Amino acid sequence: MYQWSIHLILLSVICFFYYKNIRYSALAPVFIPALLVKLLSGICLGLIYLKFYKGVGDTFLYYNYAVHYSPMVIEAPDRFLQFLFSNVTGDPSLSSQPRVLTFVKFASLITFVSFNNYWIATLYFSLISFVGFFYFANKIASAVPEVKWFVAIAFLFFPSVVFWSSGFIKESIVMPALLVVAGNFFSWVVEGKRIRFGQVIITLLMSGIVFYIKFYYAAVLIPVLMSLGITKYLDNRVGLSLFKQASVFFIVLVSHCVVVSFLNPYLSINTFLQSVYQNYEATLLLSSRDKIIHFYNLIPTLTSFAVNFPQALFAGLFRPLIVEADNILMVFTGLENTLLLLLTLNAFITIKKRAGSIDWLFVTAAVVYIIVLASLLAFSSPNLGTLARYKIGFLPFFVCLLLWFSPLEKVVQKVGKPL
Question: Which residues make Cβ contacts (< 8 Å) with residue 370, sequence separation at least 6?
Fold first, then answer.
């Protein structure tokens, strides 16, 4: 019991000082409810896997790995340092999963601090995730007050976003890292703030975390952000029309991909497609036939992926459908996806009415990121249950865009005041 007392006091102190630092910011009024929702979501995730899945799942697998290595911090620090920096695990299964290994390194440190208590560690993971989400959402809301409602809902309260980025899972580390990177780019590109050395180091470290744990997220995010930054820089210097902005953005994006593919053979188009296809095949072997996305004669060629792209995009954005749900989590996901589908249809209807009030460069960058990552995840992880979790990489951005074009936008205008 003393363990809980110590850590609840510590968590309270951390939250108090963080709130004190942001208490006058745009989203300060929702800080406490958003924090409580995040912490409870992490606990709920553990309980669901414990009660409904009998303790089987990634969250407890990662915990068992972490508990194995965390005692080494005291008992064998030399071995722990070898594990941390030289990947010496003594476990061929873990060594063969570099992304899991990277996460377990972080997890072992947190479980050590948490006295190897799963639930306490879960609270710390959820808090780390919350800090990243709130940092990004608050930054956008402060800079663009007219979208603060949409940002708050999409990043801090949308059920799947909160649930699948909480608790003892990889996304609790990856998503805040990703959002810190995106938030810092926003500060430099949109707010025009000075690029400070400390921020650059943090951005590089966070990019590394995303790259090593969720490669696909980084493979899409970094080129999009760099293309956006270069385009915005040229626009500020010489002034570009909407058409020229879009042209420069796509030219830079394609050029970036081509250059990278030539510089590193492991990142060439053919090698990349082969890697995605191998993940697809591996997922098929481990999944029930009724829980996977069935593509048409998919093979690792650009033509085959192009033919199957529309199906992959729809699946990445809107599946599982409510009629495909066979457990409580998929029921909620199916309901959310139905709402997203309706909001998407509404966005296509209302987009012309909003044309004059939109920064199309940023919308274009967001849409490209969402489309590419959604389809890529559907190809590489065709299991509907897994996909529902992995789509957290683009889901908050997608929800935010849809809310911006939704009837809620009119409600916000009528309210006419900040949160």
Answer: 317, 394, 397, 398, 401
